[in-house]
Each structure stands twice: as C-alpha cells, then as structure tokens.
Input
Amino acid sequence: MTTAPSPIRISIVDDYEIVVAGVAALLAPYSDRVVVVELDSRVPTISDVDLVLYDTFGQVQGHDLDIEDLLQASTARVVIFSWNVQSDLVAASLAAGAAGYISKALSAPEIVTALERIHSGKVELPPAGKPEDVISGNWPGREHGLSPRESEILALITQGLSNQEIADRSYLSINSIKTYIRSAYRKIGVTRRAQAVIWGINHGFEPDRSRTVEPNSW
Output
C-alpha cells in the first residue's frame, strides 16, 4: 500500500500580520498538500519547515534580500511571493539565494503546485509580464478600496520612506509612485503626506511584530 506523501511544511513571512494571515487563509483549503506551520511578522522563523514563503508587500527585494537573516539556523529554502515579476528582479532574487519565485497573479491551486515543484527541487519562475490586477491574499487598506499597489505605497509612506526610496523598494518608476500616491490620497481623503502618515498609523499601516505557531501543525 502506497503511503501518501506528507504535506509540505511552510512558514509565511512579511512585516504585516494581515498579509501573512491572508496568505495562510488562501492556502488553508490545501492543507493535505501544504501545511502552514508558522506566521511571522518581523521575527525569524523558529519552526522546522521545508519552505519559507516571503511575501514582498512593503519588503526589500532582489539584491537587497538577506536570505541568511530570514532563515537564521534553518535549513529551509526561501520562496518569493510577489506581484513584481520583472525578469531582472527575479534573477536578482535567485542570485541572492531564493529557491523559487511565485507570482501573486496565480490562483491558489497554482500556488500550491508551484510550492510542490520548488520543494521537489525544481526552480519555479513566474510567467512573463507585469500583473497589476492581483490577486491573492489580503493587505492593509483593502476594506477602504485601496488596491495592493496603493496600499504598499501608503505602507512605505507610513514607514517614512521618500518617493525615491519607495520607487527603489517597489521597483516602480517615480511617475508610477506619484500616480499611486494621488489615487490613494483620493480614496482615503487626504491631500498631504503628513495626513497620509497619520491615516496610515490609525489604519494598520505600521509594521507588526508577531509570531504565530499553529498548534495543530506538529
């Protein structure tokens, strides 16, 4: 009798608790194939996992990735989960030590299949293109009508980054940043950066620090 393979054990990492919880909810129906062991916001993974799924919302990317910091003493491999799929960014992430790169434009079943392929040793790359209409999971500000991009820009504004720093972090042009800022400001009813920072602080746009280890994952 053939024994079914054990599900892949993963942790989900991002600075925002709502983001990691959203990804976990997305994967929950597939717990026979992928089990979420730990959710981490600004803390390293401590559980024994196979893969660390690194959501890039508001995070450093590409050459700036610190894979060793993400893994600490773990032997897990890091998988990037992002809506930024420019070929140079993907290549830089792999050069930094990522084991694979998954686009947020994929459906939940496709994400699970991609994780399985990476776990089996294959290098998973995103399809060509720049998907803007995401997508998977959750993000701060979604209930206020903010798109993922608008929310990410507002999160980085709340963190105190300049427009140029935001462009570098999100791999967008300055003009694109300004466009997202204008549309986000309209949606939240502010006109100045200081007002946007206050709004962001009051609506969950400051990074979290938390760790949740799932009690039924052992």
Remarks:
- The domain at 8-131+209-213 is CATH 3.40.50.2300 (Rossmann fold).
- The chain has eight helices and six strands.
- The mean pLDDT is 90.
- The helical segments are 17-27, 67-71, 87-95, 108-119, 148-158, 163-170, 174-188, 193-202.
